[in-house]
Amino acid sequence: MLSLGAIVALSALAAPPIPKVSVSWAAPKVAPLAAARATISVELPDGFHAYANPPSRPELIPLSVELLNPPKGVKASFQYPAGELRSLGADPQPVSVYEGTVRIAATVVAPPNPGRHPLRFKVSLQQCDDTQCFMPQELEVRTVLAVAPPPAKPTPGRKR
Description:
single chain; Immunoglobulin-like; 1 helix
């Protein structure tokens, strides 16, 4: 019979540490309908990797990012970095993986109305170490996209 301590210890082995996810914007504000550039950083814990996007084989689950419930007119696209080819375990065929901090370039089309627009990104990944892969994870990160008011139109001056 397992003690409660042994059960807790086994449970801890069943899930990898949670990666840190953050968003940084290239500019503090953007114009309405402009392309806002951001970097989504995913810090994988030491000793763990995630499969690159696109994956080197169809059965692998790549790290991916999605914009959740975007405001009307807001669209996002993502550019993933190249992975590093590694041979893992007994598999002779190398696979493309990410390790350390992964930086995904995001382009978000700003909404037409000025103001602070809350956004949520979902990062999906499957972390593995050199011997096993863990259940896929979904992490959410929240941020705000600041849209500046359009520039004031100059009013024609009076001639004297």
